[in-house]
Structures are given as C-alpha cells and as structure tokens.
Write a structure and sequence with these properties.
about 450 residues, about 30% helix, globular
Length: about 450
C-alpha cells in the first residue's frame, strides 16, 4: 500500500482503521473539492460547466460499453458507439424511471465494474431511497460518492468564508423520528471532525450534542428546529429533505448566529444544488450532476438528472420525480456562485389537497416525514376536505409516537383541523416495479398545482 501524499492532510494522525478511506477516497474527494471550489469564480464556473458536458459524454460511453440496461436501449435505438457524440443524441435518449431502477438494479450496474471499483468491491454501498414518493428503491453507490457531502461542506466554507474545520470538533446529523440507529465515526476526510447521528428527544440528547461541540450540523427542518432549544453554536447548519420555512430559517440564524444553507439532494445521488441566499433559485453543483428539464404530462417540467460522480450506478436522464425549471448556462450571481440555476423547484407531486375551509395545500410537504417511517409502501388518499386516509404496508403497525409525529407534521403543513386515519396492511398492495402513486386526491380534485 502506498503512503498518502499531500492530498491527505490528516493521514499522519488518522487511526489505522480509517487509513483505507484516506487512501481509497482521498484523491477523488480532493479533486472534487477543487472542482467545486472553481464555482466561486466566473471563469471557474464556466470551465466547470464545460467539464460537466464532457463528463456527460463519458457517462454515455461508459453505459454503452459496460451497462446491460443501457446496452439494450442503445440496440433498440439502433445507435452505435461512434454516434453517441452526435448533436441531438442526448435529448433523444429516453429517460429512465424509478421503476427502471427498482426492477433492473443489477442490469444498471456496470459489468465489469470500472477498474477502481474492482480493486475495492467491498466499498460499494447498497441502500434504499427514503420512500418519500411511496415505495423505497434500492441503489448502489461507490465509496467516494458515498462521501460526496464532504467536498460540498468545503465549498460552502469557501463560498461563505467560514472558519477552517478543526479536528476534534463535531459534525452532527439530527433526526427527529429516530427510526434508524444512532452511530458515530471519525471523519478524517472531512477535517478530522467527529461525526454523530443523534435522535432529537432521546434522553440527554442536548448534553450529548453540547459535548460534541459541532462545527457543522445537518438535518431536515423538523430536526433542526430543535436547535432553538440548545445553546450549541456551530459554524454552519445544512438543511435538506424538504423546504425550510422562512420563519424557521430566520429563527435559526438569529439564535445560532451562523449561516443556515439549504441543499437539494436525492438518496440515490447525494447533493445536487445549493439554495441561493440572494433568492435566485438553486445553484447546480455542475461537477456532480447535469440537470435537464422536460415537459411533464400534467404540469410544469420534470427534472432529469445525470449523476457524474457514482461509477457504481451511472444514472442517465433519471426522472427522480421532482419538478422545476433549469437555466442551463452559467449565471454570474451576486451571492458568489457561478453555475447553471434550478428555478421553481417543486415537490414530488402535482396533486392538491383541500383544507377544511376549502383552501389548497401541497401534500408533498408530508413526503419526507412519510418516507422516514418504517414502512415498505404507503398511499395517502384525500377522502374529503381535511380528511385523509393513510394506507401503509410494513412488517408491523406503526407505533403511536410515529403517528403522533406525522400528525404534528400534517398540522404544520396544512393547518389545524386536519383528520388522519391510518390503516396497516401486512400484504403489499402494489405490484413490484409499478410506479407508486403516493398521493391520491378526492375524485374531481386531482388538479395540477398552480405554478
């Protein structure tokens, strides 16, 4: 094994059990950090966009050479390898869906694996999406891609001119529901911080967070709201999963005295974009992802993402389920990031539900909370204004605490007076591979959201 070079500043003091990470992933993460940092200058942002376009073609070639799913599609289209770079080929490529990923995971995995992954096959991570659109979907991720959040933290630090990461401080992930276990680890690839996942509400969680002395805190808005009850003072808070309410954002900034940054992410890819503090949409992380937007069958435009970082599962024009509009060229923004922008990012549904007073609300706001429940599938149906039925499939009925948390989230999203009836089903109610329909409006009300 070769000893780490200058790209691994923490190698001399890292424990032996973490040395493999430093050697296997350090060079790639260092390269990604440099590529993301380039987004802080106009010239660097334009160079990053050109590099992303070349990487998109490299992804096409990888899929043509090694990915059985795409090889079959290319044969059906009558495309040869020499035609992949021709103008218009990219836009003619049929999108892949969540059902494709759910039923063809092995065929979507390169065979043989690229050389770097063949050398470290145990580093390929297999996980499940959150299930915020209904049925969770399996995915695979290379070890470097799994650690892809660390270069994003480095970018945000440079972008906002925050203090350097200090070994011995903490990186906390807060979880409000607590259905997954707590755990911790050293992060030699992220400034030597100590990582801990903490469940909000468990005994002594505040004192444990205080002892961690977190420099970075991440979580969804429901979890981050608990920071208002603590005296910790991180340098940076990162929010994801669903929209951070403006009032909560202002309260967190005022109480913590640090930036609170939203990022757009998907479980099967990792971070995709950062919200612009100047109010100009979302800055696309072009070294990591290419975004297309195509007309959706109901309303607006459906986002198609092409992941440029994960060699274990090269996703091409993947319909993640979100809607939005993309400005494909680099925009020199007053906030200091120079990237294409994602505008009007919408939730993963075009269905509206009605409050008891007749007002409209978007059930996509419940998606992340539903997705974190220990269930295998769910369907939320509107029975009438303010009346909902949750049908879910799993190993066991939900505990009262989980249902109470979901009801609280429902009140936060839709207001008071909402009624939710939950029905447990031990047997699946959808065939494998069928596109989930997680939100079903009352007959006659399945209308598109206002833009």
């Amino acid at each position: 094994m070769t000893s780490p070079g200058p790209a691994h500043p923490f190698a001399p003091r890292v424990r032996k059990r973490y040395l493999h990470q430093v050697v296997a992933f350090g060079p790639t993460l260092a390269a990604w950090t440099r590529a993301l940092s380039a987004l802080c200058t106009p010239a660097g942002g334009r160079a990053a966009l050109e590099a992303a376009r070349r990487a998109r073609l490299d992804r096409l070639t990888l899929c043509f050479d090694r990915v059985p799913f795409w090889q079959a599609r290319f044969r059906a289209l009558g495309w040869g390898r020499h035609q992949l770079a021709e103008p218009g080929r990219w836009d003619a490529l049929p999108p892949m869906t969540r059902a494709d990923l759910q039923t063809h995971l092995d065929a979507l995995t390169p065979h043989p694996l690229p050389p770097a992954l063949r050398a470290t096959p145990d580093d390929v991570y297999e996980g499940l999406t959150s299930g915020s659109t209904g049925q969770p979907v399996r995915f695979r991720m290379s070890g470097a891609a799994y650690h892809g959040m660390f270069p994003v933290v480095s970018l945000v630090r440079r972008w906002l001119r925050l203090p350097a990461l200090r070994p011995g401080r903490g990186y906390a992930l807060l979880d409000a529901l607590g259905h997954s276990p707590e755990y911790g680890a050293l992060l030699p690839l992220c400034g030597g911080l100590r990582f801990e996942k903490l469940t909000v509400g468990r005994p002594e969680w505040r004192s444990r967070l205080r002892r961690l002395r977190p420099q970075v805190v991440t979580g969804d808005p429901d979890s981050l709201a608990a920071l208002l009850e603590t005296d910790v003072r991180p340098d940076l808070v990162l929010s994801s999963a669903f929209a951070l309410p403006e009032r909560l954002h202002a309260d967190l900034v005022r109480h913590l005295g640090c930036p609170v940054v939203e990022y757009y992410s998907a479980a099967e890819t990792g971070p995709l974009a950062l919200r612009c503090p100047a109010g100009h949409g979302w800055h696309v992380l072009t070294p990591f992802v290419h975004l297309d937007a195509v007309p959706a069958p109901d309303t607006g435009e459906a986002l198609l993402l092409t992941d440029l970082r994960n060699d274990a599962l090269p996703l091409l024009r993947y319909a993640v389920g979100d809607r939005g509009r993309v400005d494909p060229e680099v925009v020199d923004c007053a906030c200091g990031l120079h990237t294409p922008r994602l505008r009007a990012l919408e939730g993963r549904t075009a269905v509206v539900f009605r409050r008891p007073d007749g007002g409209a609300w978007n059930p996509a706001g419940l998606g992340p909370s539903l997705g974190r429940l220990p269930v295998r599938d769910f369907e939320l149906t509107e029975l009438g204004p303010g009346r909902l039925r949750l049908r879910y499939h799993g190993a066991a009925p939900l505990e009262p605490r989980a249902l109470e948390a979901l009801a609280a989230r429902l009140r936060a999203v839709a207001g008071e007076g909402m009624r939710l009836d939950a029905h447990f089903e031990r047997d699946p109610f959808r065939a494998p591979g069928v596109k989930p329909r997680p939100f079903v409006a009352h007959p006659g009300r399945d209308a598109p959201l206002e833009p």
